[in-house]
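Figure 6 in text form: structure in, sequence out.
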């Protein structure tokens, strides 16, 4: 007969329970790693916009303003 494991509460755990517990631990580890990466990204300075990007943004805004149903001027409160 296979040896049985018990949970922290003392309940016996089936093979399925053991597999689920293993998967949960792996997921928790991945979540922890992702949290660390996110915190590192929050601490890193934002990249500076390049001058070529500014021109592209201006072009995009001018194109969007031509499409009246978008109502860009009203949505941006005149800031664009």
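Output sequence:
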């Amino acid at each position: 007969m296979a040896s049985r494991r018990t949970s922290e509460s003392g309940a016996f755990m089936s093979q399925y329970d053991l597999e689920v517990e293993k998967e949960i631990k792996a997921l928790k580890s991945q979540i922890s790693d992702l949290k660390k990466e996110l915190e590192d990204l929050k601490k890193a300075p934002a990249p500076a916009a390049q001058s070529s990007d500014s021109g592209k943004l201006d072009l995009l805004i001018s194109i969007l303003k031509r499409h009246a149903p978008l109502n860009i001027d009203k949505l941006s409160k005149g800031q664009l």
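Caption detail: The chain has a mean pLDDT of 82.
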